[in-house]
Design a protein that fits this description.
Blueprint (H helix, E strand, L loop, with lengths): L2 E5 L3 H13 L3 E5 L2 H11 L3 E5 L7 H9 L6 E5 L4 H10 L3 E4 L4 H23 E4 L2 E4 L4 E2 L7 H11 L5 E3 H8 L8 H15 L9 E4 L3 E4 L2
Parallel strand pairs: 1-2, 1-3, 3-4, 4-5
Antiparallel strand pairs: 6-7, 7-8, 9-11, 10-11
Main location: cytoplasm
GO biological process, one term: positive regulation of DNA-templated transcription
GO molecular function: cis-regulatory region sequence-specific DNA binding; identical protein binding; phosphorelay response regulator activity
Length: about 220
């Protein structure tokens, strides 16, 4: 079942969207502001986010930037802002589509289907990824050459591989893999990244794929 996070400060619109999406067999979570949206995204792991730009606490663009710091989840912006520049800024920030209010529900549902279809194709591309001499299958949780990873190593590797080319911050990795109480334990990451490189890189001392960005985080370079 496709999981959708709906973010809007209008209770009536939230209710209408929930009813329409649930009726079409989507699993729905809602958030009335930007802070709640970022928390819900981390806990609910949506397959799609419907996001209003005019939120009471954070601007919707800040929410997009916050999400794009760690996830490639498709984002459709829903907003009453009509200015062309607003649309450009939202798309540049990382939104996948833009729908102005008031909108036709059937058109929105068609856009949701289109965006989730594209995301599904992206998932297929990500299912098997080459690192050095090894093929990583994220779906089956296997690595060619009989390489075995611990659950923690898998957790780190999967986050990096699902964000190819993007910097993933140390705090985000620590919070996702160990929990929010460990965001300062950067030595954990150094140890596990060293282990991953030994298992996957051709030359662990000079990694070509699992890259350290000093003081910031790590990046998977395809």
């Amino acid at each position: 079942m496709t999981r959708v996070l709906v973010v809007d400060d209008e209770p009536q619109l939230l209710r209408a969207l929930r009813i329409n999406l649930v009726a079409r067999h989507y699993e729905v979570a809602t958030a009335p502001d930007g802070g709640a949206a970022l928390r819900q995204a981390a806990e609910f792991h949506p397959d799609l986010v419907l996001l209003d730009l005019g939120l009471p606490d954070l601007d919707g663009l800040d929410v997009i930037h916050g999400l794009r710091g760690w996830t490639t989840v498709p984002i459709i912006v829903l907003t009453g802002r009509y200015a062309h520049q607003d649309k450009i800024e939202a798309l540049d920030a990382g939104a996948d589509d833009y729908v102005t209010k008031p909108f036709d529900m059937e058109e929105l549902l068609a856009r949701i289907r289109a965006v989730t279809r594209r995301a599904g194709l992206h998932e297929e591309e990500l299912a098997k990824i080459q690192i050095g001499d090894h093929t990583v299958d994220l779906t089956a949780k296997t690595i060619s050459g009989d390489v075995r990873l611990t659950p923690t190593e898998w957790g780190i590797l999967e986050i990096l591989l699902r964000n190819p080319g993007k910097l993933v911050g140390q705090r985000h990795l620590l919070a996702e893999v160990w929990g929010s109480g460990h965001v300062k334990e950067t030595h954990y990451l150094r140890q596990y990244m060293a282990q991953l490189r030994k298992k996957l890189e051709r030359d662990p001392a000079h990694p070509a794929h699992l890259i350290t960005e000093p003081g910031m985080g790590y990046r998977f370079k395809p």
